[in-house]
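Figure 2 data, in text form.
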Amino acid sequence: MYIEGVNYQGGQPIRIKISDGKIGEIFPLPYSDKKLPVVAPGLVDLQVNGYGGIDFNKAPLQIEDIHKAVRLLATQGITTFFPTLITNTDSTIRQALQNIVLACKTAPELRAAIGGIHLEGPFLSKEDGARGAHNSDLVQTPDWELFQEWQNVAEGKIRIITLSPEWDGAAKFIKKCSDSGVIVAIGHTAATPEQINAAVQAGAQLSTHLGNGAHLMLPRHPNYLWEQLAQDQLWASVIADGFHLPDSFLKVVFRMKPESSILISDCTEFAGLPPGVYKSHIGGEVLLNSEGRLCIAEQPKLLAGSAQSLLWCVNQVARKGLLSFSQAWNNASLKPVGLLTGKQQSAFQFGEPANIVLFEQNKDEITVRKTLIHGKTIFDNSKE
């Protein structure tokens, strides 16, 4: 099987051979009048709470819904994503873990698309502001035995855990997670700089949606935002949907961490839905307006999570000139894989899974035409 397109980096027309779901040889093509789509590595979203009316945190999570989510996310160029489970009851977390594992066993495309599970909580800060929308009654101190039980249920698929290092014993917990191969992320935290430093020394590698899940008021310095920005060992993920963070903050993150910043969507079940008023099991009635902003219906100034895909975030960052288009795309594709593997990535590597997106770019807007996951076409809206 071969696919042809214009390389998103440099604009060279290329032909990519795909064999057994993996990338084979790459051949340059001569320039011609034939209009080719742009070809790029698939987008990788490390934080997906739901999409298109599907909520990974709402019990009971149906296996059919996970199948549907993979197909819907593929329309946005997402070839790999991490279902994200937030602070919840033990039974709800276990049930979600079980069904995600079972879903992966039912279809090869699900195993290929789900890169792992992101556990966001319950080992977070109890403080208002830092805790965000997480249920205070269910937030608790890091518990290694409990986490091992969840990991056993997940059959090792928990790849990322977001926690706050402000708890006593957090550093020991972080080291055990890191030693077991789980990426530890700092988020929803009220930790001191000393606690953040201890977490990094213990193996923490990532800041989850840096700048969000934070107090409204902070000391000028020191504070946990400056400290995480200054930690060279920490990658930073940011929600660049145009609503969660101001452009100035994104600029600082991209300049402080040019090689270790990642775009995420942190999207909820309301992503991919038309504007309207919806019912949320966390915040009651929420409003998704025509601009794509999701807020509490009775308190419009308060965001109710993200309702946009990772592709939307790439478009936002590139359109505003915060990063070049190829940089924005890399921050949502190659960079997350770099964090996960510990190795610097380049596009279209021989022998790597053929997770590929073909799209059109008109002005500053990307329209996905075809998405391949491990060489299999999951979405096709091409004009061929």
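Caption note: The first strand starts at residue 2 and ends at 7.
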